[in-house]
Amino acid sequence: MAAKRAAAALRPAANGLKASSTQPRCYSTPQLSPRRLSIQPPRPRRPAPLRQPSVHYASSDSKGEEPGKTGLYELHTRYGAKFVPFGGYSMPVQYGDLSIVDSHNWTREKASLFDVGHMVQHEFSGPGAEAFLQRITPSSLSSLPEYNSTLSTLLHRETGGIVDDTVIARLPDKFYVVTNAGCREKDKAYLTAELESWKKDHPDQPVDWKVMDGQGLIALQGPLAADILGRVLDPQSAHALQTLYFGQSTHAMVKGTDTQVLVSRAGYTGEDGFEISIPPYATEAVTQFLLDSAKDELRLAGLGARDTLRLEAGMCLYGHDLDDTITPVEAALSWIIGKDRRANGGFHGDSVILQQLRKKSEGGGVSRRRVGFVVEGAPAREGAEVVNEAGEKIGNITSGCPSPALKKNIAMGYIKDGMHKSGTEVEVVVRGKRRKATVTKMPFIPSKYFKAPTTK
Fold first, then answer.
1. Domain containing residue 302
2. CA-to-CA dists, residue 368 to 153, 325, 329, 389, 448, angstroms
3. Which EC number(s) does UniProt give (predicted)?
């Protein structure tokens, strides 16, 4: 039976239909013939009582519609997942074998596997792809090497507000772009309108946009991630991981098969790790292969642990820490704006953003800044007000939770410029009571990314 399930899981999917260059179309995977990839049933594990997560996670944007399911929904069910609506999908928040805190700690100590297949994967190609993406983001994509990526933001034309945050990678003949599930419809409308405008302005530089519907995406995170991933790749691909640094990608072959995946050294937890884009027909098989290869080191993890991990790592969650009214400068993301873009502009909202980058003496600066907080007493949640000694509002909390690693209550939010320096003492109103808080640098814990050695 296991062999039959593996064969079915690896059966190539039908090719998608071609669409116009300004509309998304389904991603067509190459006809990869499987050789051997066995799937064993999940190993029974002692269940732990499911507890309601104490962290905040976004609700579905599906407006009453039935949540979608990723390609790993059945696998999650077999492993005892508890589901919640998130970004229009039914997503696991935790599993029966570990509490949220235990899952968080497991990730920091060993490795966890997250299903992020709800996120939207895109490909942009054609003669105008680079220039088009540089128009709608502040990134220096013209100098981005092949198989390298950068965090970026889609921007509103006039205000420089953040439409969505995104990761953009340059591949040999295209750009691979990942956006948030909760912004799916908004991003679709935005990109459609922007491509129509681009086509009118640059008819000689066409752009082909593909939405990779059904493509699997998993995140393998933790100090053991590289060892675990190396076990399921063919020798050549496994060897390449040794010099694959944070922010870099490679195409890799799954051991014993003709299945090719895109491996990116990246993540949302502050740990070393990888995001793995998998053809739709092989998503469950490859994920099960990973789990079976490291039964004592790897566990599935859900949105609960993902939220506490990302907050310790100082990572933003769109719709909470970022939105359409916030610019990259206000969000402490000025580092994503390339040097050449600062000098030459040429991207949406550049007049606003470049002015914000100037010194206050030159009329620049911002009125608010994203910062971290350590809060005494009860944890501060989204919406809590930050006040000064006189009780005057000077900011607000956008994310907050108890930190399993620090054993302190941490939070992220925005504060009035001038009060944003690390060590500044403020107060946060929690359940009607003013709690002492201290402005703190982020990330809250040291990042453990596998980075290229620096040259002096």
1. 2-117+215-312
2. 19, 12, 9, 18, 29
3. 2.1.2.10
